[in-house]
Amino acid sequence: MAPTSIERASSSSSTSIPPWKYDVFLSYRGEDTRENFTDHLYTTLIEKGIHTFRDDEEIERGSEITPKLLKAIEESRFCVVVFSKGYAYSRWCLDELVKIIECVKENGQTIIPIFYHVDPSDVRKQTGSFTEAFVNHEKQYEEETKRWKAALREVSNISGWHLEHGYESLYESKFIKRFANEIRRRLNCKILSVGENIVGMDFHLDKLNSLINNKSNEVCMIGIYGIGGIGKTTIAKAICNSISYKFDGWSFLENVREIGSSCGLLQLQQNLLNDILNGRNIYKYHNVDEGVSVIKDRLHSKKVQLQQNLLNDILNGRNIYKYHNVDEGVSVIKDRLHSKKVLIVVDHVDNLSQLECIVGKHDWFCQGSIIIITTRNKHLLTCHGVDETYEVKELNYEESIELLSRYAFKQSLPKDDYKNLLVCAIEYAKGLPLALKFLGIFLFSKTIPEWESSLCKLRRKIPMEIESVLKISFDGLDDMEKDIFLDIACFFKGKDKDFVSRILFQAYK
């Protein structure tokens, strides 16, 4: 089908539109669907984190189309119009449809029609259940009728969603879930901030998606491991952004090691449940990065709340589950999540007990659920019995050059005069993305002599920001391991790493 004037307007105007206040504006005839289909659709969209406006909740019922309603239409990225059998009897609905088309042509939103037990051709030609309605309209509203018919023809020519009776049709619940997932996909929701200067991410996502697809009909636990500063958390956020819309609920439990130590395992359980059970109309997040995404998307200021409850988010705030110990928490997680297809990321785990009380066993969760664990300790993943493991390795030479260039020069390729200096600089970072980032920031806007001076200083004293990154793995060792590491570093100073590894392997095999 050729694109309509509405679709052409949307594609040509959308680049100039400021960020939307709402994701979806719902237009429907309340008498037909307010208490059934539209209510279920609205609830599902909210549960998926899709900011949705419906006029009977936010504007007094029975009022005329007001500037407030027009503003809501203008500020919504998608206008979803639910055509029902009685839709054309409502002058309110028809007037609203005309206004929606006007706004779309001016502002570039997207209209998505849903044909709820009506044939799209009946809407287009005003036949079937639409015939009698327009017989009455034409007697009283001759001029308005022309605009209404034109609006119906234009919108019904857009490729939409058709829910119909019959053996081949979907149940309403499945139809609504698929529709909500499609909206999430089209919104390209990036709930977790992964930063702007990302290198090599497509490779990691392809590998992880391959592992996930191999277990698509099962509960799949995947472990991502690697040294500190290598990018495990960033990769986990990126995969979460790319697939979270497919699940009934999701949770990203960031920095479990630190939160578990400061707040306890009980708090981690509550955070998980809150995330998956979804607070109605409340945009919750657990760290500043998530807050950045919410602020950009909603233009609302929100305070970071690390202590929000996991269950309340995932189960949509209908019940607050209070319990007093970790064992009770395990029972609640199993009881509330076993029937939901969920995505859970448990980030920066350093102790098996953390996994045992949050994502203990496969049978806690519904088929199709994905559990992703990030850690520095591969053995911990083996002990927990994950299905697949994925090692994040250092960036290669080309990737290191690109990442450092993005921070040092604000471009993906190095400046010609700096190429030799750049090669020297990346030796310090050893392919660690976080170290390359801080190094690039440290060298940004410096002249060639300043680069040379800075690199000389790096040989004697590494800046605190870079040193903190390189020490991440060292700080994760226990006291005995730190002593052994320092002995090796002093005794074999200046020796080749592979040479030292061979000696130690022979000594301890």
Descriptive report:
The chain has 509 residues and is an alpha/beta fold. It is built from 27 helices and 10 strands. It has helices spanning 5-13, 30-33, 37-47, 55-58, 67-74, 91-107, 120-125, 129-140, 142-156, 172-187, 201-213, 232-243, 256-263, 265-276, 288-298, 310-314, 326-337, 352-358, 378-384, 397-408, 419-429, 433-443, 448-460, 464-470, 472-475, 479-491, 497-508, and strands at residues 22-27, 52-54, 76-83, 110-116, 161-163, 220-225, 249-253, 342-349, 370-375, 388-391. The strands form 2 sheets. It has a 5-stranded parallel sheet, sandwiched between helices. A 5-stranded parallel sheet has the order 7-8-9-6-10, with helices on both faces. Strand 8, helix 18 and strand 9 (370-375) form a beta-alpha-beta unit. Helix 1 packs across helix 6 (91-107) and helix 21 packs across helix 22. The model is unreliable at 11-18, 57-63, 279-284, 297-313 and 316-320 (pLDDT under 50).
Name the beta content range: 5-15%
Task: Please state the average pLDDT score.
Answer: 82
The structure class reads alpha/beta
Annotation field: number of helices: 27
How many extended strands?
A: 10
Q: Distance between the terminal alpha carbons, to the nearest Å? A: 69 Å
Approximate helicity band: 40-55%
Q: How do the strands of the widest beta sheet line up side by side? A: 2-1-3-4-5
